[in-house]
Amino acid sequence: MSDSLLLPHGRVLRYSFHERLMHWLAALSYIYLLLTGLAFWTPWLFWIAVVLGGATISRELHPWVGVIFMVAVFWMYRAWAAQMRATERDREWWRALPHYIRNEDEEVPAEERFNAGQKSLFWGFFWCGIVLLLSGLVLWFPHWIPWSLRWLRLISVILHPVAALVTIALFMIHVYMGTAVERGAFGSVIRGDVSRKWAARYHRAWYEQVVRDSAAKE
Amino acid sequence: MSQANLEIRRISGHAGPVPGAGVKREYEVAKLVDTTTCIGCKACEVACLEWNGLSFSDTTFQNSYQTMPETAWNYWNLIKFDEHERDDGGGMMLLMRKDQCMHCEEPGCLEACPADGAIVQYANGIVDFQQDHCIGCGYCISGCPFNVPKFSPDSRKVFKCTLCSDRVSEGLEPACIKACPTGCLHFGTKDEMKELGETRAQQLREHSGFANAGVYDPAGVGGTHVLYVLHDATNPEAYGGLPKDPQIPWTVKLWKHPLKWLGNLAMAGGLVGLCVHYLRYGPKTVEPDQEIPKQGEQP
Question: Which pTM value belongs to this model?
Answer without folding.
Answer: 0.91
